[in-house]
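Q: How would the structure tokens look for this protein?
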Amino acid sequence: MAIIVQSPDGQTLMASQVVNSKMKKHLAKFTSASQGKSEVLHSDWMKKSYLVSKSPIIKKGKLLGNVYMFLSTKQIQKMVFDFSSVFIVLVILTFLITIFATASIAKNLTLPIRAITSETKKERNEFFAAVTHELRTPLTFIKGYTDIASRESVSEGERVKYLSIIRDESARLTHLMDDMMTLVQFEAHNFSIKKSSVLIANLMDDLMKKVAGILNQKNIHLNIIGSQQFEAKLDYARMQQVLINLVINAYKYSPDNSTISIDIEQSPKSFSIQISDEGEGIDAADLPYIFEHFYRVDKSRTRKTGGVGLGLTIVQDIIKLHDGNISVKSKQHGGTTFTIELPYD
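A: Here is the predicted structure in token form.
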């Protein structure tokens, strides 16, 4: 996110980064006739370099300047290009299979192949629609609260609160893009792990330190059960990512003053890590789908709990790269338990 403040005559007063030529072209398209009005320029993120919004700074009816916010579309375009490449390969493979099937079995395989092609197209359309929706929501919040914060009637305390919301939504955008780029790497088979010998006790100590501050906000106790004095070959950073994701997920749906338990058990060839909470649980109808892209158990709570439905997908992919398995058991109002099973090597 880049922010530029200009005077009414177009002179740049402040900028969060160097104003490049593309930004200047965008700025030139905001006409003088629109002075004192909020505008959004270039909502077409497939063709333009930036999504741009303008918010005037007005005091006692006088225009003091304009705030321009630039969001680069480069990562979005790259992600779309990477997924398009995957779908092109799928289309080519489907075409070759169709030729072989026509020659060998003729009509018997025609209908299944058409069904596969249709499902592939449906998955692509649903993914693009979800991405567009998830990007639009924080941008709308940023635009709206920027307008409110610039009003003369807003107190300093309220202004600080609105700027905090803008900061949180910007962070949410960054987190969303990071998750989607990680997912793109998985889909393109460019994501890899680097295993090394890890003492499980160290893994758990770091986990406790990183989540303690968040858990304290709801006075939730993290209880680790079982022996931790053994080693396994893991990607330390990625396994931390998995555990933090699951603990924070448990935190979001747990009541105040409750307990999140981590139970570690060993067997001769593998070990397991169970993460259990005392939260509201997951309906049985939702359980088969919680690891799917953009799936959320309770869509009405997205703004309250955060997340975009990619965390568990990434968790499952990381576990699979470790030749492990993750499963879940839950019931409404009875808590949820995620079980990770991993080999020692």
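Confidence is low (pLDDT under 50) at residues 299-308.

The chain has eight helices and twelve strands.

Upvote if useful.
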